Amino acid sequence: MHQTTDATTSAVGFDHVFKAFVSQGRRGEPVLALQDVAFEARAGEFVSLVGPSGCGKSTCLNLLAGLDTPSDGTVSHRGSPVRGVNTAVGYITQDDNLLPWRSLRGNVELSLEFRGVPRRERRERAQELIDLVGLGGFEEHYPHELSGGMRKRGGIIRTLVYDSDVVLMDEPFGPLDAQTRVILQAELLKLWHRARPTVLFVTHDLVEAIALSDRILVFTANPGRVKREYTVDIPRPRDPFHIHDAPGFAELYDALWDDIRAEIGQAAR
Ligand SMILES: Nc1ncnc2c1ncn2[C@@H]1O[C@H](COP(=O)(O)OP(=O)(O)OP(=O)(O)O)[C@@H](O)[C@H]1O
User: Fold this and answer.
1) What ipTM was reported for this prediction?
2) Which residues form the ABC transporter domain (predicted)?
3) Is the sign of the CA dihedral 258, 181, 59, 88 positive or negative?
4) For a tag on the chain, would you pick the N or C end, based on fewer CB atoms within 10 A?
5) Which residue ranges make up each domain of the chain?
6) For domain 12-89+165-268, is the CATH number 3.40.50.300?
7) Rounded Cα gap, residues 40 and 244, in angstroms
8) Mean pLDDT of the chain
9) Residue nearest atom 12 of ligand 1, based on CA coordinates
């Protein structure tokens, strides 16, 4: 289902990317959000972006989705510069964005419907994911009849059902309670293993970043650039419930936290 990305082409590339916003509130002075951001993500890689608030993590995702354009440098997807809205990537934000007038099944089938996938295939693909995240039996429920965690699952599988080769996730579990978050992290890993898209995942939760990622990019305080990258060597499949016990977890957590603490200190100065 994925478009192929050969070994020499990164799935996602940021090449010396700058982004300035002209903000009305600051008498037209530009705000530099990104300053020389450079990184790549390989096909099938799970990469988290972490860093202090306002360091430009969401801006990176928006550039890749083509919702914004870089002021300088190039953002590429499968080796081609992103020009205009990039509908080939999946984008999951904090809000579940389920349509209130559609059932869970209707919501999950939506992106397949837009792409003209025949009804029977839509049904099968949606059902597979509905079952995989334990929502079997709730297919005909409307969003207001589902819990926050169930709606969140619905929003995630609605994006993943299309099998995009790149999926952007911006603090997808932000508003959920701690227990539901960990359950959903485990489910996300199951979904990711099923189709292995490249994921760019924005989070403030370092434990979550370690549990999910192959690599973690730490951004500097505003203006954001990649300060350091960490490879997460914890073997897969991983168990987010017991990730604290994994060898190397504590050292990695401390190193990440030291880096981020230094940046928060910079930002406060
Ligand atoms: N559309 C916009 N217009 C003006 N400034 C913007 C716009 N979008 C983002 N910014 C500014 O760019 C900088 C980076 O914002 P961004 O939302 O990417 O940061 P972030 O790291 O995702 O923050 P958080 O962790 O708080 O969500 C901030 O200073 C923000 O105010």
Assistant:
1) 0.98
2) 12-246
3) positive
4) C
5) 12-89+165-268, 100-163
6) yes
7) 28
8) 92
9) 33
Q: Is the CB of 59 under 6 A from ligand 1?
A: yes
pLDDT at 26: 59
pLDDT confidence of 6, banded at 50, 70, 90?
Answer: low
Q: Cα 184 from chain centroid?
A: 14
Residues 199-251: tens digit of each pLDDT: 999 999 999 999 999 999 999 999 999 999 999 999 999 999 999 999 999 99
pLDDT for 3: 46
Two structure tokens written together for 209: 């970043």
Which letter does DSSP use for residue 220 in this model? P
- Cβ atoms of 236 and 210 within 8 Å: the answer is no
The CB of 31 under 6 Å from ligand 1? The reply is yes
Which long-range contacts does 101-104 make (Cβ < 8 Å, 24+ apart)?
101/142, 102/142, 102/143, 103/139, 103/140, 103/141, 103/142, 104/130, 104/135, 104/138, 104/139, 104/140, 104/141, 104/142, 104/143, 104/146, 104/150, 104/154
